[in-house]
Each structure stands twice: as C-alpha cells, then as structure tokens.
Fold this protein.
Amino acid sequence: MRKKIIAANWKMNKTINESIHLVEETLSLLPADHPRDAVVILCPPFISLAKVSEALQNNKKIFSGAQNCHWENFGAYTGEISAAMIKSAGAGYVILGHSERRQYFNETNEQLAQKANTVLSEGLIPIFCCGEPLNIRESNTHFELLQEQITKGLFHLMEDEFRHVIIAYEPVWAIGTGKVASEEQAQEMHEFIRHLIRKQYGEEVAGLTPIIYGGSMKPSNARGLLSQPDVDGGLIGGASLEAADFVEIIKAV
Ligand code: PGA
C-alpha cells in the first residue's frame, strides 16, 4: 500500500510567531486518532522552518518540509538555502519545482533535476511538482508537457533513488484560483503520471509512488478528489493557512 500524504504549502505567509501559532492550532484541532493513515507535512517559509520542526519534534505523523532549495550544497549563492541546511533545521521534505518557482524564478527542468539529486543525497524527500498552465490545457498538449517535466526532472534517477520521490500534480490554472480540477481530470492525469513511472521503473515502483493533487483543494472537495484511485493525497496552499480547514482535509483521507 502506498502512503497517503497531506502537505501544507504556506508559501510566503506567516511570520515566525504566526507559524508557531498555526502549528499549535493545527495540532490542537487534530483528534487523537488522526491522522490515521496520512503522513502530514507542513512547509513553512525558511525562516520558521527550525522552529516548526522543533514544535513537531514529538509527533510521529506530522513532519516539516521546505518550499525550495538550491542545487549546490554550499558556496557563493547569496540568499540561497541548501539541502544540508534544510536537513539541519530538522525538516524531512522539500517541495521542488512549484509552478510559482518555475514561473517567477525561471526554474528549469534541468535545474530541478539537479535539485532532486542534492535533496536525495541529503536523505530528504522531494515533493516534485508538475502541472500545466491554462493555455497548454486548452491546446490539449498537457500530457506532453507533463511527460517532459517528469522525464527531464526525475527520470535520470536510479530506481532506488526514485523510490523516495513524491510527485505533486498541480494544474497551474487551479492554483489559488478557486478553480479545482474535476475528480475525473485529476484521476486522468494521475493515472497518466503513474503510467510514465511504470514504463520507466516498472510496476512495483509505480504502485508505490505517492502522487498527490494540488490546486484549490479544500474541505468541500477533498473527499471526492482523495477518493480517486490514483490520487494519494494533497498539496494544499490557501486552505492550509486556516487550521480548521486543513484539519478537515486531513480527516477526509
Ligand atoms: P492552493 O495552492 O491550494 O492555494 O490552490 C496549492 C499550491 O500552490 O501548492
């Protein structure tokens, strides 16, 4: 059985104090038996990462993650953060290739391939984002784009490295727009991604790789999306900033 993953992407929101407050609120709203089957990951801004990790220290099912990292381990890259630093802050996961990073910071598939290498070499787990903008969906070339993003970003990995990867399918047109992919659209893309993995790494690895959905997931649509056979969880932006909403989504697993 592959894992269910519910990850929160706080993006550039919350000061250090606000981050701690949100963690405490989230923990207090989680009933003792939750998350039953889900691994929950909170990805705050870098500045709060060590504090959030500390606040989650005694928790066995809620972990912390970063929203990005550099592809080198150290050096003259002013303003950047390495995978080793992220690890030293107590985090276990790193979001890579979020569409906002691809769009506003010009991240390329080639850079993401290198980032995946450094993240894995530090023993961290990449949450690798892929997804198509609206014009690509409208021109019906979204399968090709996804294939390119995944092939160039991940398929250089050896099988034993790839086994650690989580993939997040996030249609760009559904991120922060309130426009959610239908359950059928999500399932279709997740199935396609799993098919690509099967061709590259075989049936067993394809069956084990968590593929999570992101894009306006909220309490009202989480259950439907999460019940799709190839949707193994969610990457949640806006709704993760409200503890009650985020906990409702966790309960929908
Ligand atoms: P959203 O963001 O839930 O606010 O649409 C998801 C994401 O960007 O990861």
